[in-house]
Records
---
Amino acid sequence: MQISTTDPVKTLVEHHSAVETTASAHDMEHPDYRLLGIMVFLFAEGMIFLGLFAAYLTFRAVTPDWFSDESTKLELLLPGINTTILVASSFVIHQADIAIKKNDVAGLRTWFLATALMGLTFLAGQLYEYSHLEFGLTTNLFASTFYVLTGFHGLHVTFGLILIAAVWWRSRKPNHYSSEHHFGVEAAELYWHFVDVVWIILFVLLYIL
Amino acid sequence: MTSAHVHATVPATTPNQVPVYRKWLDYFTFNPDHKVIGIQYLVTSFIFYFMGGTMATAMRTELATPSPDFVTPEVYNSLLTLHGTVMIFLWIIPAGAGLANYLIPLMIGAQDMAFPKLNALAFWMIPPAGLMLIASFFLEAPQAGWTSYPPLSLVTGKVGEGIWIMSLLILGTSSILGAINFLITILKMRVPSMGLHDMPLFCWAMLAVAALVLIGTPVLAGALILLAFDLLAGTAFFNPTGGGNPIVYQHMFWFYSHPAVYIMILPLFGAISDILPVHARKPIFGYRAIAYSSLAISFLGLIVWAHHMFTSGTPAWLRMFFMIATMVIAVPTGIKIFGWIATIWGGKIQLNSAMLFAIGFISMFVIGGISGVMVASVPFDLHVHDTYFIVAHLHYVLFGGSVFGLYAAIYHWYPKITGRMLNETVGIFHFILTFIGMNLTFMPMHELGLLGMNRRIALYDPRFTDLNLVCTVGSYILAFSTLPFLLNAVASWFLGTPAGDNPWRALTLEWMTTSPPPIENFEIIPVLTTSPYDYGVSTHNSAGDGSVFSPEPVLSDDSSVTLQPEPDSVVADNTTDRQVESYAVASLIVDRQPENRADEPAVESSVPNGSSSSLQVESEPAGAINFDDR
């Protein structure tokens, strides 16, 4: 607080210098903090997944017959392909970001469409895997965590697809997004990256470990 | 300095501003104004406080005698479940959020929160969630306590349990959305002249709270999702009969719910840090210590959760870690307590209702804090776990702490919020009743716990009857004590003495605008020229009567000399006399007559000529305000 240094002279000088710098700021809109808000929100979202991962790892550590139970074996091929598609889609959606920064709305639309198709493929692959697994939600503890974790992630993929679709729909108007104003594009992209990163951790935990 | 050269004047703080009174209908709409939302939060949470209080009174009535003669044990279980949940999730947490919503933008000189619509959305999730929870009482009420431990929560009151989970998920989401707003508003929306270390301590406290909410609440959501699957879909995450592990729930639950006690107390720590200096007319003692201790509490609060689980089969080495970490929290908390005591020590204390509640807060919280250190110790906790000792401890912290703090905050900021003063006589009556009622209700519970009386039970051994009767009488006093407050708050809103802009002669920015403030708070972006707690500091009144540490800072009737929304016109128009003028700031006390404003030059030539060169050197940017903090 530096109370001891607040003498009248300095106070007044500070006072005036501050006035000069703030006079122009009067009545101005504050900068756009929405992207920062999305980041903080995604941090909180990440904490949900972190909590669920921690629960999964604890179950794994303390359940006696976790590894001996053969009824919940997982295939690696299809989920592997699925993972590749989802990871690749993160690079695809970034191309959209590059495009809109060059004011290329057509490029944005193309790349977003490609991302959406890859996301849909991922979801379809997920559903195919669900329908061909030999265990159900309540077979054992692993089965339950498997379905809840992948399902919760699938819900996030679905929400990400809705965001992408919303941006794609809005971008049909020529001037809705520009190199200067494209918060929607960045938000959808950030969310998509988040979903992607969560999947990588999830894949390692559920399928590989 | 003599009075000979004093002719400067105090500028009117709010030249063009008039108080803005909202239509009552505005408070029932989706309104993005943070002040409307703050009042919505506070009033809504107060309504739930009365509901939770009614439940508590019913429980104490039941506990007046050892046998269940007032309500059945099942109804008692659901009363205690809903009492705990309502008081925590619908009273203290949203009331703290309400204070933060109202105060943060005003304190940092912003026009609103960073995301006003998100803010309104966060509020409007609370009424439906709260009504759902209350409605569950009439369907098939949850009976597993506010902790909702499985497997108990999976076998009793299933419908109510489902509603409980749903309601908490909504309230948690609301809390997270609120925290995003607080965090970004505090970090990004301060007036340009306000560094982090120029913020009022309430903002520091809310920074710590926002961090806790963002880290803790999502984990509770994860636990509740899994619990919902157990309850509704037949999985067995937490159900030992299906191979699950109930301890995992306890870990996830307390990972949020221990930080939640800091989410409930830290806003009030911040509020008290702002209230005490104003009514003791002294600077806060140890600004940085109090500010950083909020962050330290926030961090430590995240790594102590398992001290709620000492009897849950937690391994000994782990218990040791959590025991020591828990005790360490007493250090930053103690720093705050000593800071507050040093603040009021030797101050010119004004014992009004706000100050009484603030001092009551400190004394009650110290008792709760000390019993907290006691139960942090594993060997002691093993004996008192799930007894009334814990009930006594948590009520001293949450009632003696949070609720006293909320009352102090309401008495302190009510004039700003409504533009009218609360009645002091009724306020002091309210304080005395609350103080007696609180101690009569909860003090005997320490003894009951040590004697071995279990909590959460409607029936008890007849040998506990006398002390329980004392508790019940105390709870009636406590229940009655809210009535004078309610009458005071409602009547004063319409009939109270007009408060003016700054009835307490405080220095923080929220008092530098009208009461209630206009829609965007400040007509002109305020400029900070002093730290928020410079009461009686030599800077502002070294001249005149010659007393360096007079407890009265120099203020005009309704505004502050030191915090001005615009530069003094006399000073601004005349650049040549600036160094000389600076001396006059200290002299403003002596002469505050507005008609002198036009008199030029403001300062007579009695200031030595030689001084101006040395003043130039002094006025390097290393001065009063830390810009580098941003």
Note: Chain B touches chain A through 81 residues (CB under 8 Å).
---
Amino acid sequence: MAKNENNGWNDFDIGALLFSFDKETKNIATTLQEDRPYSNSNSFTASVADWRVMKPVFNKEFCIDCQFCWIYCPDMSIISRDKKMIGIDMDHCKGCGICVEVCPTNPKSLLMYDEHLEDEEALIAAWPAKEEK
Amino acid sequence: MADKIDLLDIEVWDGNMAASQAMRQAQIDVVAAYPITPSTPVVQNYSTFLANNQIDGEFVMVESEHAAMSGCVGASAAGGRVATATSSQGFALMCEVLYQASGMRLPIVMHVVNRALAAPLNVNGDHSDMYLGRDSGWIQADAFNAQEAYDLGLMAFKISEDHKVRLPMMIHQDGFMTSHTAQGVKTLSDDVAYNFIGEFKPMNAMLDLDRPATHGVQTEEDYHYEFKARQHHDLMTFAKAKTQEVFDEFETLTGRKYSMIQEYDMEGADIAIVCMGTSVETARLVATDMRTKGIKAGVIGIRIIRPWPFEEIKEALKDVKAVAALDRSSPNGALGMLYNELAGCLLQNAKPSILSNYVYGLGGRDLTKDNIKQVFTELKANADTGKLTTPTQQWISLNGEALNFF
Amino acid sequence: MLEIRWYSRAGQGAVTGAKGLADVVSTTGKHVQAFAFYGSAKRGAAMSAFNRVSDEEILTHEKYMEPNYVLVIDPALTYSTDITENCNEDTVYIITSHLSKEELIKSQPTLEGKKVFVLDCMTIARETIGRAIPNTPMLGALMKVSEMYEMDFFLENMKRVLKKLPQKIIDGNMLAIQRAYDEVN
């Protein structure tokens, strides 16, 4: 659990438990992640961006919104709205590449690049062509 | 809505039925159980009540005691009133999950019908399983007869479910000697019993979707120690205070008095036996008999084993010259648990009593009044001479050559 | 304190009998205890059950007992078990057997000079209840020999104890108790 220097033995909630949210919530299932009052101890408030060596880059042009990447992502880092893939949550993506593996389009709509390559527009401009079979 | 049962003022119940009736009157939401002798009838009676619409709840049959306690943990974390029962090998298999239940601060009530641990296989009563649970973080209460199994069975929910306490509680009774012995049990009506216990008030329930909680988190060297300290603190302070408070309320309601330790004939006692379970009652008879012969003998029964009643015992034994700790569990390489715990108490008294240890009754071996008379006789010799006149540990009523140590 | 020791085979209803007796006695304000030893805990295995009755609260939990009454509800146990264990000269034996009292004592000489009563609980049970469950007839015999309670009072209370059983079985038990009361000698 998240370490807080001020937590003495008498400062915890009893029981080995953590609350996901700082306050009571209503209809949490229909509230978007960014609108939820996540508590500090919830993993949503922690970034694992620096774990990445490679990162996925999303090319909207070829995406068919099949949602495979959304289903398979082990860190729930594919952002989808109204069943449309709109991007990647780069705070929680660890760069595992599963989304690229499961992407069914030709060429793929997601490809892995070195983390340090910052110019994504250039990467998309140089996107591979359709592979002839 | 469950049908009520009109009970007689005094019902002839064995300890198992007494425990089941307390569970019924508490209107438990979930029982997850894997029946085992001699506690089988506790959950069997419960399932009969359920089938007869005398309770609103769920009976979850599982594949082992490990799963039984796991089911209880799940149901309790979800936010229900939960109880179960077990004995012996089943208790041993539950052990891992007992620590989960107490660490997660889940107010599960469990009737433990004490039975020996194999090998050799034995279904009869001793305190091996009770001793096995004593570091598990549960509140442990001991019933000496069926009446007390019923009374403690009602009180347990009130103690355990208190929001400052929130610790699971075991109620022990002796296998067969209590569990299968029918005696008169003074009852409370269903309404009076339920009102005494009160509605279950959930706390941090997993099924509270407005405030989702993650139960059973991991802590490493950062906070594990603090969590355990908090748990120990709450057991030592809140659980103890609440237990006494509930005992007092119960006395007001029924006139039946319970305390951390039960003292019998202890006024001005020179010698005393400290023991647990049905032995307390048999020893009381002998002490009273001794008193008529001018020997100032008394008995202390340990009602609450955890949290250990350190101050109470210290005080009760401060003027007693010789004390015997009777352990109904093989210490397997040490002096008995009661001996060691009592020694800790006595050490702080100005004149520590001369303490001796008797192992007895393993696997249901009878403890007779004659056995107890012999212990008192030896205690008297210790008191009269001012020193230990016997070996420190003796095994009584044992076939073959005398066995003793230290 | 009144102490009773039952000899039975698991399945013949000694525990039910002992608990039923305790139940009835309890309604008169006395303190009761009923318990059993199961041994190997299989149907047919020899076992013993116990009753204690007292005006005072019963504190003893020792299994050791010097019984006032010994009730034997399986005929063979008179021979295969020492039913006289820890008994004294006042102990009363009520034994189920097809033999007469004289024949029984002749066949088991340890009963010589003892206070022995005999009846055939097995036959009574078969003819009244329809099954060889000899526990309730033994209670009828005990009522006669001990003069513990008036028969009407006892029958009424046994009806309450047995109330969960089908009416036909309850009626059979009532007949069995009465016949045993009349036939024991």
Note: DSSP finds seven helices and six strands in chain C.
